Amino acid sequence: MKVMHKTNTFIDRRIGEKDNQISSEDRMVARFAAERAKQHNKKSIYNLADDEILTHRGQTLEQIEKFDDPRSSDDEDEEKRFGGLGDDFVSEGHFGGGVLSKSDSRDGAKSHKDLIEQ
């Protein structure tokens, strides 16, 4: 009466355990084969077949070279890639150019000798 509606009983679900006609060695072989099949099914999800062709932008991965850079090497692309600052701007703004730079082509800047003569 105490165990009437209990669900915590042990049920032996091992392969070949209920069949008395199978030897113990055959039971172990059947269990081993079932375990291997179970492991194979879990791992086969990630295995790709050899006949499947992987593509990237319409090209197979075998055709794409490892070091091929599809981007063009125009000057505009290089400026965009490096922040859009031109060489002239960088040299004038960062390395002594700009308002305080000494240049002979400016009309407002006069040398010390010119100032004394006036």
UniProtKB/TrEMBL annotation:
Keywords: Nucleus, Ribosome biogenesis, rRNA processing. Residues 61-118 are annotated as: Disordered. GO terms for cellular component: Noc4p-Nop14p complex; small-subunit processome. It comes from the Eukaryota. It is found in: Nucleus, Nucleolus. Pfam families: Nop14. InterPro entries: Nop14. Its main location: nucleus. Residues 63-73, 103-118 have a biased composition (Basic and acidic residues). Belongs to the NOP14 family. This is Nucleolar protein 14.
